[in-house]
Amino acid sequence: MTFWLDLMFGSDVGLMSMLVIIATTLLISFYAGYFIYKVRKAGPND
Fold first, then answer.
1. CB 9 within 8 A of CB 15
2. Membrane-spanning regions, if any (predicted)?
3. pTM flag (> 0.85)
4. For the CA atoms of the chain, what is the radius of gyration?
5. Terminus of the chain with fewer CB atoms < 10 Å: N or C?
6. Is there a domain that residue 31 lies in?
């Protein structure tokens, strides 16, 4: 566990890769939630 924490947060490259993974996950979650919201709100003729 210490190895992984040092690898992720001990260097700038590891920290940036974790930020990219977190940002990508947040974007995917937002777009999925928005898509589900639009599908549920759409009427039968939309």
1. yes
2. 15-37
3. no
4. 18
5. N
6. yes
